[in-house]
Amino acid sequence: MINLTRHRPTVVERSPTVGKTATVAGHALRLGRRLCALALVGVSLAGCVTYKARPLPTGVDLAASADQLKVDLARLRVAPLKPIRIDPSDGLDPTEVAVLAVLNNSDLVAKRKALKVSDAQVFAAGLLPDPQVSASVDKPVAGPDTNTAYSFGATMDLAGLLATVYARRSAKLTAREADLNLIWSEWTTAQQARQLAETALANEARADYLRKVLGLAADRYAKSSRALERRDLALQVTGADLAAKLDAQTQLNTAEHDAQKARRDLNALLNLEAGVVLPLVTRPVASTYDTAALDQARATLAARRPDLLALKAGYGAQDANLRKAILAQFPLSSLGIAYATDTAGVVTHGLSTGFGLPIFNGGRGEARIQNATREQLRAEYQARLDQTDAEVKNAQAELASARRQAEQLQAEVPHLEALVAPASAAYERRDLDSQTYLGLSQNALSRRADLDDRELSARVAEIALETALFLPPADSRASR
C-alpha cells in the first residue's frame, strides 16, 4: 500500500473568545457526526435480512385422490404441451397425464424453489461493493499539545467495482441456465408420464384379452377333467388343456403386474398415493410426423431444445467469468480519501490507493482455471450435440422397426385367431388331437402377445423421438 497523503499545516490563532467559539463549534460538530453515524447505522440495519425459523415437514404430502391434483394450466411453461387442455370428465389420456405430472411432481416443485436461489445470486452479483469507512480518536493525556486528534477515511474496492459488470452477466446467464434445465426436466418428466400411461393402458388391454382366453381355457380344462374322471377322455388331452390354461394364466399375471407397476410409478410422478387409480383412457386419433417435419425439427434442434440452450447459457456465464478473471489481473485494487487532525491542531486531507505487484501470482492462475473451464464446457456442449443426434437417429430406427414388425403381425394374428375357434370345436368333437390343438392355440396367443409388445414399443419409441426433438405429441395436434 502506497500512501499519497499530503499534509498541510494550518495556523491557528488563539484567543479566549475564539477558543470558546471553537469549543462550542467542536461540540456541535461532534454531535452532528454522531447523529450522522447513527443514521448510517439505522439505514444499514434496515436493509438487513432477518432470521425466521422454517421447520422441516414431519410427514408425507401425497394427494389422496386425483381430484386433489393441481390443474393450474397458467403455470405450464413447456411449449410442446401448451395446446393441451385437461378434461377429467371423460378420463385422462396420456398427454393429459403428462401435463398433470409437470404441475404436481414434487421433484419439479423443489427445482422451481431452487430457481429462487439463482434469482438471489443475480441480485447479489448486481450489488456494488460497500465502501470501507474508518475513524479514530486520540485524546492526549500529557505533553505540550492538548488538541484531540481524530481522523476519517473512506476506501472503495475498485477491483470489485470493475468486476461487478461481468459478475452480474455471469449470474444472469447462470440463472437462465437453471431455468432452461428446469424446463427440460419438466419436459422429460411429462414424457416419462406419457410412457407410463401408455404402458399401463397397453398391459391392461392385454390383461382384458387374456382373461377371456383364460376363461375359455379354464372352462375347457374343467370339462376335460370331468371327462377324464369318467374315463371318457385320454390323459394327454386333459394335460394339453391344463397347459393351455397355465400358459394363459402366466401371461395374465405378467400383464397385470406390469400394468400395476406402471400405475404405481405414474402415481409417484404425480405425487399421488400408490393406491389411487387414475381414470386412464386411450384416444382413437392416430397421427404421426412425416419425414419432412422430422428433418426440419432436427435441423433447428440446437435453437429449440432447452438442455442445449442451457449449455449455451452456461458457456456464456463461464465466458463472463473468464473476462472477470482477466480483469482482476490489473494491479489497481482500491482508492481512498482521508481527513485528519493531530494533537497539534494540524489538519490534513489526502488520497490513498492500493495495488498488488504482479510478481508471484498476478491472478494468472485463476485466469487459466477459468479458461480451462470454458474449454471443458465447450467440449460438453459438443458432446451433447453428438449425443442428441444419436438419440434422434436411434429413436427413429426403433420406431421404424417396431412399426414394421407390428404391421407384419397385424396381418398374421387375425388369421391365426380365426383358426382357433373351429379348431376348438374340432378338438371337442375329438376330430383334432390335443397336440395339434395346443400348438395352434398357444401360437395364436403368443403372436397376439408379440403384437401387443410391438405396438407398445412403437408408442414408446414415438414418445422418445418427440422427446429428443422437443416436439408436441403428434396426436395432440389432431385431437385438440
Characterization of the model:
This protein has 480 residues and is an alpha+beta fold. It has a single domain, classed as Outer membrane efflux proteins (OEP), CATH 1.20.1600. It is built from 10 helices and 6 strands, in the order E-E-H-H-H-E-E-H-H-H-H-E-E-H-H-H. Strands 1, 2, 3, 4, 5 and 6 form a 6-stranded antiparallel beta sheet that branches. A hairpin with a 5-residue loop joins strand 5 and strand 6. The two termini are 72 Å apart.
Order of helices and strands: EEHHHEEHHHHEEHHH
Which stretches are poorly predicted, pLDDT < 50 over at least 5 residues? 1-22
**Content-based structural category:** alpha+beta
Strand content: 5-15%
State the CATH topology: Outer membrane efflux proteins (OEP)
Instruction: Estimate the global geometry from the Cα principal axes.
Output: elongated
Q: Give the biggest sheet.
A: 6 strands, antiparallel
Estimated radius of gyration: 39 Å
The number of E-state strands comes to 6
> CATH top level?
Mainly Alpha
**CATH superfamily, called what?**
Outer membrane efflux proteins (OEP)
